[in-house]
Fold YeeE/YedE family protein.
Amino acid sequence: MTGAAPRLAAALAMGLLFGLGLSLSGMLDPARVQGFLDVGGAWDPTLIFVLGGAVSVALAGFALARRLPRPVLDTRFDLPARRRIDAPLIGGAALFGVGWGLSGLCPGPAVAALSTGALPILVFVPAMLVGMAAFRLIRGAR
C-alpha cells in the first residue's frame, strides 16, 4: 500500500496527533517554553517530560526503522544520509535555539498555535515563513 491517498491520510492523522500532543503538553504556550529554557531564573521543569517522551518515541521509531525492509506506506525510508557536523549545522542549530528561546515558539508548535488566534502567533508564523523563504533564496544563490 504505497498510494498517495493512504500516505496523505496517515500524514494528516499524525499531524493532528502531534498538534494534540503539543496542545496537551503546554508547548503552545510561549511563556511555559521560555520558563523551561530559563534555567538560571524561574525554571519550569515540566516540559522535560515532553522532551523525554519525544526522544523515547524517536528512539523507538529509529530502532523499528532499522529492522523493517521498508515503511508500510512508502517504498523506502527517508533517513538522513549526512552524519558530519559542520558549521552550517551548528549555526542553524544556534539560530534555531536563540529564536526558540526569544519567542518561546518553534515551527511545529507555532503552526499548531495558529488555532489559538493569538496576535503574537499570527505575527510570528508569517515572519517565520518569510525567514524560511529568504533562506531558500540565499542558499540557492550560492
